[in-house]
Structures are given as C-alpha cells and as structure tokens.
Amino acid sequence: MDLLLVGVVMKAHGLRGEVAVLPHHPDSPLWRAGTTFQCVSRELADRATDGLVATPLRTLTVRACRPQTTGGEIRMLCTFEGVESREAADVIRELHLAIPREALPPAGEDEFYHHELTGFTVKDTTGRVLGTVVGVFPQAAQDLIEVSPPPEPDAGKKGVAKRGAVETWFFPFVDAFVRDVDRATKTIVLDPPEGLIP
Q: Which strands sit side by side in the sheet containing 178-182, from one edge to the other?
C-alpha cells in the first residue's frame, strides 16, 4: 500500500486509552472523529521521508480528537476505537499513522502537500538554481524547506577540493521569500534575504 505518513503516537495520556499524537500537519482535516489511519512501525517510518510503500500492521479509527499546545508544539490528544485503557494505549505507542495517498483530497490552488514539494528545483528570481528540495519540516510558525545545493562545477575532478560546501540548507516557506511555486515545472522561485543561502 502506498502510504503518506501523517503523525506518530507518542505516549498514553491518562488511564482511559487516550494518547498524545505528534501530527505532521496539525491543521489537517484528518484529525477528527471517523478518520481511519493505517499503522506502520517506527523502523519502517524512520527509513522513509513523507511516505512509503508498506503493509500496515493494523488500522486505528479516531473516536475523538482535540489539540493541545505544549511549549509551542501542537499535539493531538486522540482516542481510537478499541483502545480503551492505558495498557491498550501503551501497545500502540511509537506506531506511525498514515493514510493511502489516493485518499488525500485535492490540494487548493495555493496549497501544497509536503510530499509534493520533494524533488522541486529551487531557483532565485534571476533563474539561478539554488538546489533541490529534499524535505519539508512542519514548525509552529511556518514550514521549513530543506534544500540540497547543486554540485559544484568542478566537484569530483581529480585534484579539485571543495571549499565551504554544505550538505543541505533551509528556508521558511513564507510569502516574504517564496515568489512562485509551479507544479507543472516542479519549481520554487525564491527571493532570499542576504545571508540565507550558504
């Protein structure tokens, strides 16, 4: 099954089966009663980015869900059907929650799922290639985009050393910096402030 990871069960909350879930996207409409998640192990999820192809260990259907903010981090306090005690909640601890990709509703015109952006080329407003998106990290204030810079022209040539190279760098996915996102060409146009690009 082609799955998109959406959160992870952190720990039991109380004695009646409620658990704290760390969501990848806390504002998603998935966090409501009736949503059914596919569960995969931490080992499989740790080797993935946003998604993976796997056979789920089990399914969990949300009975109730409410947000909780702790130290600036939003968690979901969820109860699932059939999980009615602390012992049952401990059994699902560290399971990663996912949904089939085909179950996703279409994104809006100016909205993008995180997994969509992986592989997009990042350019500045002059057309210079700044790198390729390799990850998206949801934060309380805004999402952070991880970019792998393009290889240096002479990198890998015998006797040529690389200076000041970085493996990846980040930029906030906000209107102040992002000028355009084009699905058709898989391109993000960035107007970075001084010092953002290593």
A: 169-172, 144-148, 129-137, 121-124, 187-190, 178-182
pTM check: above 0.70: no
Helix residue ranges per DSSP H, the chain: 42-46, 86-91, 114-117
Show pLDDT as tens, one digit a residue, over the chain (198 residues). Answer: 999 999 999 999 999 999 999 998 888 889 999 999 999 999 998 887 777 899 999 999 999 999 999 887 899 999 999 999 999 999 999 999 999 988 877 777 777 877 789 899 999 999 999 999 998 887 767 888 999 999 876 555 544 434 345 689 999 999 999 999 999 999 999 998 888 787
CATH code: domain 2-103 is 2.40.30.60
* Region 114-190: CATH code: 2.30.30.240
